[in-house]
Design a protein that fits this description.
Distance between the termini: 21 Å
Shape: globular
Largest sheet: 3 strands, antiparallel
Oligomer: single chain
C-alpha cells in the first residue's frame, strides 16, 4: 500500500476552518458545489484518508450534509472522473437499498432533509472506504450532540447549582466521551489498515458510539431535548439514517462475529 501524503498541523487546521465555514453556509447540492470548488475530489484522490476524515467529521460537527459518500464509493470502485460519477444504489439496514441523490430535493421516505430514497435493488459496490467515511460522520455528529449536552449541563441549574455538578450527569457525559474516542481510535486504525474487516468494525464502533451518545445526551437534556426547537433531534435523526447506511451497527457486529466463528479465531487487528 502506498504511503499517503501528509498535511502539516497548520494546514490541517486551516482546511478544517474553511470546511466548517462552507458547511455552515450551505447544505445539500449547494454544499456539493462548494466542496467541489474547494478541491474536495482532488483531495480525495491525493490523500483519501485525511480528506475523508476531515470532510465527513466536519459534516457531523456542523450538522450539514452533502452527497459526498457517492464520491468515496466511486473512488474506491476505481472511477477516474469523480465529477461525472453517478449516484449508485447503496445497501441499507434490513437488506434494502437506497440511493443518495445528487439533487437539492429532500426525501419524503427515509432521509428527512437528506435526499436519500429507497430503491428496489442494486449491484454490489466496494464498501470499506464508505464505511470509514460514515464512521467519521457519525463521530462528528456524536461530538456535536455531546457539546449540546455539555453546554446544557453547565447552564441548567437545580437546587442552586449547575446539573453538571451531579454525578449521574457527569457519568453519562464521561461514558459518552469514552465511546466517541474509542470509535475514533477504531476508525484511525481502519484508515491505517483499510481492509474490509477493520472498516466494518470501525463503522460498527462509530454507530454504537453515536447511539450511546444520543441516549445519554437525551437524558442529560431532559424534556427540552425532545422539542423541535432544540438542535438535538436533528443529530439524532441523522444518526439513525447514517447508522443504517452500508449496514447497521447490529448487522455489522453480527457479520464480524460470523466471520470469526467461520475462521475459528479472531484476527489480530492491532499490534500492541
Amino acid at each position: 500500500m502506498s504511503v499517503e501524503p501528509t498535511m502539516d498541523a497548520d494546514s490541517l487546521r486551516l482546511l478544517e476552518r474553511t470546511l466548517r465555514t462552507a458547511m455552515t453556509a450551505a447544505v445539500g447540492a449547494d454544499l456539493d458545489a462548494a466542496l467541489g470548488e474547494l478541491g474536495w475530489r482532488d483531495m480525495l484522490i491525493e490523500m483519501p484518508e485525511t480528506a475523508t476524515r476531515v470532510v465527513f467529521q466536519s459534516l457531523g460537527e456542523t450538522g450539514s450534509h452533502a452527497s459526498v459518500l457517492n464520491d468515496v464509493v466511486a473512488h474506491e470502485a476505481g472511477r477516474a472522473d469523480l465529477d461525472a460519477a453517478p449516484a449508485v444504489p447503496l445497501p441499507f439496514a434490513g437488506g434494502s437499498w437506497v440511493i443518495w441523490q445528487r439533487t437539492a430535493a429532500p426525501s419524503t421516505a427515509i432521509g428527512g432533509d437528506i435526499p436519500v430514497q429507497r430503491v428496489g435493488s442494486g449491484q454490489p459496490v466496494p464498501l470499506a472506504a464508505g464505511r470509514r467515511a460514515l464512521g467519521w460522520w457519525l463521530t462528528g455528529t456524536s461530538r456535536a450532540m455531546l457539546a449540546l449536552a455539555r453546554r446544557h449541563a453547565l447552564d441548567r441549574t437545580q437546587f442552586g447549582k449547575p446539573i453538571a455538578a451531579f454525578q449521574a450527569v457527569r457519568h453519562r457525559l464521561a461514558e459518552t466521551l469514552v465511546a466517541i474516542e474509542g470509535a475514533e481510535a477504531a476508525l484511525a486504525t481502519a484508515g491505517e489498515r483499510p481492509d474490509e474487516l477493520c472498516s466494518l468494525l470501525g463503522k460498527a464502533a462509530a454507530g454504537d458510539a453515536a447511539l450511546v451518545t444520543a441516549r445519554h445526551c437525551q437524558q442529560v437534556l431532559g424534556g427540552v431535548g425532545f422539542t423541535a426547537e432544540h438542535d438535538l433531534h436533528v443529530h439524532v435523526e441523522r444518526v439513525l439514517l447514517l447508522d443504517g447506511m452500508l449496514g447497521s451497527t447490529r448487522e455489522l457486529t453480527r457479520e464480524a462475529g460470523a466471520a470469526a466463528r467461520a475462521a475459528g479465531a479472531a484476527p489480530r487487528l492491532v499490534d500492541l
